[in-house]
Amino acid sequence: MAKASTARRRKGGKTKSVISMRLWLAALCVVTGAIVLHDNRPVRDWMAGYFPDTVKTASPGHSAPATAGRAVSGGAGAQTALPPHPQLRPPLPVGTVQTASLPAEESLLGKAYSGTFYFCGTSGLDNCVAAGDVFWFRKQAVRLADIRAPRTEGAACEAERQRGFAAKVRLRDLLNQGQFELVDWPNAASDSGGRKWRVVLRNGQSIGQQLVREGLAHGVAEAAKPWC
Predict the structure, then answer these.
(1) What is the pLDDT of residue 158?
(2) pLDDT tier, 112 (very low <50, low <70, confident <90, very high otherwise)
(3) The domain 110-222: what is its CATH number?
């Protein structure tokens, strides 16, 4: 009986020693883990996502940064904090748009005009001859005020059409021979189609009257004279 009692006391003491050692080892692991967790921020941040209470307990002196999605206390239950509103900036002042002013229409009066003229339709409506008494110059239509040339379009007969084409060719050639002067017509500034009435002079002589002398146009007084 004495031997059995002694064996039980030895066994009980050994068991208590093992339990005590295990408790000390567990406490040491906890302390060591807390120290490692406190000094190792990546591990602490990783554990915060899965064990937030454990991380807070293991590092009591550390306060986690506030985030937009952290729960805040209030009311009957926890509410999720909303992200802060972005700061609105005042709109930029709208600048005044300045439109370029269109150049004023040239009066086409004066001396020393010149240019290379073609037939209208081949060069657009600029420096071109449209009829025996109409040409475009600097994108404006000019009509010889002191003559009436035969028509090529809407001619009354074939003779008028041919004479009108000859006047058109001759006017182009005369304009291409050098500088000319444009003089206004005292009776009117423009015709019903908006074409400027002008007398074309070179060396003081009317180019239109030259066409009359060559039989390619009529003077103003003979405007009604037929070509057929």
Answers:
(1) 95
(2) confident
(3) 2.40.50.90
